[in-house]
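Q: Predict the bound structure with copper (II) ion.
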Amino acid sequence: MSKKIQTVMFIMSALLISGCSDDAQSNDQNNRHMMNQNSNEGNHHMMNQNSNEGNHHMMDDSTMGNGHMSHDNVVSLKDSTGENELNIPPLLTSDAADRTEYTIKAQTGKVEIFDGVTTETLGYNGDLLGPVLQFKKGETVKIHTINELDEETTFHWHGLEVSGEADGGPHKTLKPGEKELIEFEVTQEAATLWFHPHPEGKTSEQVYKGLAGLIYIEDSNSAKLEIPKEYGKNDIPLVFQDRVFNEQGQLDYKSVMNEDGTIGDTLLVNGTVNPVLTVGKEQVRLRLLNGSNARNFTFKLNTGESFVQIATDGGFLNKPVKLNEVTLTPSERAEIIIDFSQLKSTDSLSLINEDGSILLPFDVLDQEVEDTQTTKRLNDFAVTDEEKNMPVTKNIELFGMMEHVEINGKKFDPDRIDFTQKQGVTEVWEIYNKKDMMGGMIHPFHIHGAQFKILSRDGVEPQENERGWKDSIAVHPGEKVKIAIQFKHKGVYMFHCHILEHEDNGMMGQIEVK
Ligand code: C2O
Ligand code: CU
Ligand code: CU
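A: Predicted complex:
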């Protein structure tokens, strides 16, 4: 990456922060204008042209933009040049031959993300990100968690149905050098979950620097389904994260942090910059995780052709759902299958974002491969009439922006329990994203320790691809979402906005399940 681009990136990120904070009014106009231009490709263009001129121009012009930063209006990602083969994280091997027992260390690392530049990072059992953990439904899993960082951390299993004790929320901090053995039974169906740290007020920085990994749960259903399942070949993990690298090629979180969600112009997929994925002419399953702090992604093929979604956050959909695009807000997952043998042309094919930026180019190998059929019937997920008719017993109101975010008018207090619910009893929660004067923004709302069902969005049944288990849900400004949720285990669990800076700013509450 050239010095010039890096400098421009640095200036831009500095503006992103200062322009949005309360005590930087003078920058506000420039920032707004800049953001506005970004949506019109100003920025995208500028970065690709490798020129400082565009930037200057934008700053001198004093036309006002329209309102505060929204996530529809953020800096575009630079196109992937496709020069680096995508990194496929290793599958973690068990410490024992006859059972699942893992050792996971949170550690500091150094990685050559850009040629010839060493970037300081964090990782699990490695320099950046983590290995994939595999659990089987019904088994007891032991995990030795070890904190080798020089600060506190926790090990949170996002989407996993475990006791509050094992969940790794902000109460379960490990000091530097500390270890803890976690043990739990896997009680939920096949799904793609993930793990990441959750220390109070520090989650965003630790995730930003590289702490995140995937968890695959398999069960008897997933074992017998005819879907692509050769890891790294036609079953590909894809962790999408946007970042800002400074002039030295470092992830200087403090200098780019935005209270409303830190957004970057550089995409890493599985920690790889400018990735390309080589696939056969066959059905390929992509397990998508939006692992960003704040950016929303809308994934589609550059040809506009369709694919199918087969799984949501917490399990398989009942049948493959045909889509032209799928949107994931931070922490949401979707498993999709692209049939590379059926596409019109496989030349310069790529997965792109809503605004057209190239996220992941595909290099499609020429030889035909024996094809997998996708089973028509994948699962037996159902919302019962009883659940549909249950009254709302918990109300969640999401409100605010920047450091003023809150839930039900309150900020997180580790000593306050906001709600209680009985173990094994289904309740209906209504989550309302209350607009502010500026219109508001999407809040991805997440609940620990359980998978839930979406009953309705503003009174309407959810889209087909949301009729499956969820642990995170995008709630749009002004929208009211009803979900049915049951906790299988006891303990204290967090619920929060998964824009990590909102979480760290206190957009989080606690429920105790008794
Ligand atoms: Cu992804 Cu509270 O977590
Ligand atoms: Cu979680
Ligand atoms: Cu939020």
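A: Residues 405, 443, 497, 499, 502, 507 surround copper (II) ion (ligand 3) (CB under 6 Å).
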